[in-house]
Design brief:
- The protein has 109 residues and is an alpha+beta fold.
- It has a single domain, classed as 2-Layer Sandwich (Alpha-Beta Plaits), CATH 3.30.70.
- It is elongated, with a radius of gyration of 14 Å.
């Protein structure tokens, strides 16, 4: 394992087609090296004073720290939610995997 050289930007969205579309856009635009789409999951959350429940799909986007702000902006532009979940976590990993993320994001391979 190495020091953090990548980040995972996670969001959730209300349908599998929407999750797949979001994933395709950010990978095609080279804002993320890959996106894992998982679901359905049940989300419980407090919104406007009430506890809500929704079925959602989670998108985990692997990217570089430098590309994270542009990825976040793009997720916001694509997202149907008024306040989308967008969480960024630094990650470490196998050096060759982190190098692949760096190569796949932001420039032609």
């Amino acid at each position: 394992m190495t020091a953090p050289g990548a980040v995972v930007v996670t969001t959730s969205i209300d349908s599998e087609p929407a999750a797949r579309h979001l994933a395709e856009v950010v990978v095609t635009e080279r804002l993320a090296a890959c996106v894992h789409v998982a679901g359905p999951v049940t989300s419980l959350y407090r919104w406007r004073g009430a506890v809500e429940q929704a079925t959602e799909w989670t998108c985990s986007c692997k990217t570089t720290p430098a590309a994270a702000p542009a990825l976040i902006a793009r997720l916001r532009s694509l997202h149907p939610y008024q306040l989308p979940e967008i969480v960024v976590a630094p990650v470490g990993g196998a050096p060759e995997y982190l190098a692949w993320i760096e190569t796949a994001v932001g420039r032609e391979e």
